[in-house]
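Hallway conversation turned thread

IA: we were arguing at lunch whether anyone had actually written out Cysteine-rich repeat secretory protein 38-like end to end. Turns out nobody had. So, for the record, here is the sequence (254 residues) and right after it the C-alpha cells. Reply here if something looks off.
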Amino acid sequence: MRHSRSSISINLLLCLFLLSPQAFADSNAVTDSAFLFHTCSSLQNYTANTPYASNLKQAFYQLASNAPPSGFGLSSVGDDIQSQVNALALCRGDVSPADCKNCIDTASNEIQQQCPNSKGASIWYDFCLLKYSNTKFFGKIDNGVRLYMWNVQKAENPATFNEQVKNLLSGLVEKVEATPKLYVIGEQGIEGPSNKLYGLVQCTRDLSGAACKKCLSDAVAELPNCCDAKIGGRVIGGSCNFRYEIYPIVDAQK
C-alpha cells in the first residue's frame, strides 16, 4: 500500500503548484513519525546573528519545552514588530509527550535546513506540525497550504464507499467543536474484507471551536478532488487535517 501526493497550492496568491508526485511508504505502525511536507511561506528573509534569528531560536525552544505535555503550544517572542516571531506546534492527539517533543525538535532543525533564513515556514510530520511567521496568525484559519495524500487502491464499490467515508468524517467534524483538544477519532463498520473504516480529524487549538468546524468542513468538501473511491486518504492544511483508512490509524483504535 502506498500514498501519493497530489498537486498542491502552496500559496494561493502566488498560484504556485507542485506537480511532482511523491510516494510515501505506508505503515500500520503508529510509532513512525514520517516527514510529509514543508513550505517556505514568506518571501522575506532574515540574516544570521540578528534579533529575528535569536527570537526564532527562542520560539523553537519554548515550543519544544511547553507543547509536549498537552500536544499543543504557541510562542510569540520579541517586542519589536520587525523582529517578532510567532510560532505554533501541534502534535497528533494520541502522541506521547516524549514523541511529541522529539517530533518538534526534529521539525525545528529540519525547517531551518529546508527554509534557511525564511521569515515564515511550515513543516508537517505524521506526529506533528510546526510553523512560524513574522506576522500574527494565531486564531485565523490557514488556507495557504493544502496537501492531498491517498492510497492508490480503489474501493470495489466506489459510490457506497465514498458515502461511508463522507458520513464518518462528517460525523467526526460534528463532534470536534465540543472537544478540548479539537481532536476526534472514530470508526464504523463497512462491507468488505476490512470490515471497518477508521477516521481522524484535528485542528490547531488556536482556533475557536466554530472555526475548527469550518476548517474541517471545507477540507472534507475536498474529498472528491482528493480521494475519490480511494481506500485511504487525507487532507492536511496549516490549521486542520483529516485522515481515513481501512486499518487503525492510532493506538486507541486497535
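OS: looked through it. The mean pLDDT is 87.
IA: good, adding that to the notes. Residues 158-176 form the longest helix (19 residues).
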